[in-house]
Amino acid sequence: MRLGNNHILPFSFVDNVQENRINRVLNAFEESVLNPVYDDQLKLDVLRGNSKYYKFINDEWINVYTYDDPKLKFDDYHSISEEGYHILGVDYEWVFIPHFYLCGDLVIQYIGTDSEVLGILDELGDEITGR
């Protein structure tokens, strides 16, 4: 990753920054009763970033995408249709309204209707879709 004036950051630093941002998201949910738990069995990726799924006690989940390449994040972000049903040239059918949020260098996917989850996501970032 390049910083201004051609300074190059080691990838371990970039990984730590991304983990800190993910932890900020998780901490916001842990303060509620939702109690997110990492689930490495879920794999429903619709974007090209690195994904991690977190399942809530209500059996809903969020997918947190991180990006090493800002251009890839930009392209993914702009590929999501306003309603969230068309992403990267593919049409999707969701059980609930799709919600995608831009939270700094993270993109968070949530397919659900829980008002507490949506409230926390609204505080963390800007919604791309779902309204």
Q: How would you characterize this protein structure?
A:
It is a single chain. With 131 residues, the chain is α+β, with helices and mostly antiparallel strands. It has one domain. The protein has three helices and ten strands, in the order ββαβββαββββαβ. The strands form three sheets. The chain has a six-stranded antiparallel sheet with strand order 3-4-5-9-8-10. A two-stranded antiparallel ribbon has the order 1-2. The chain has a two-stranded antiparallel sheet with strand order 6-7. The protein is globular. The termini are far apart. Residues 1-14 have low confidence and may be disordered.
List the helices and strands and how they pair.
Layout: E1 2-3, E2 7-8, H1 11-30, E3 37-38, E4 50-55, E5 61-66, H2 70-79, E6 86-87, E7 90-91, E8 98-103, E9 106-111, H3 115-124, E10 126-127
Antiparallel strand pairs: 1-2, 3-4, 4-5, 5-9, 6-7, 8-9, 8-10
Give a quick set of tags describing it.
31% helix, disordered N terminus, 10 strands, 131 residues, two-stranded antiparallel ribbon, 6-stranded antiparallel β-sheet, alpha+beta
Structural class: alpha+beta
Order of helices and strands: EEHEEEHEEEEHE
Number of strands: 10
Please summarize the sheet with the most strands: 6 strands, antiparallel
Radius of gyration: 15 Å
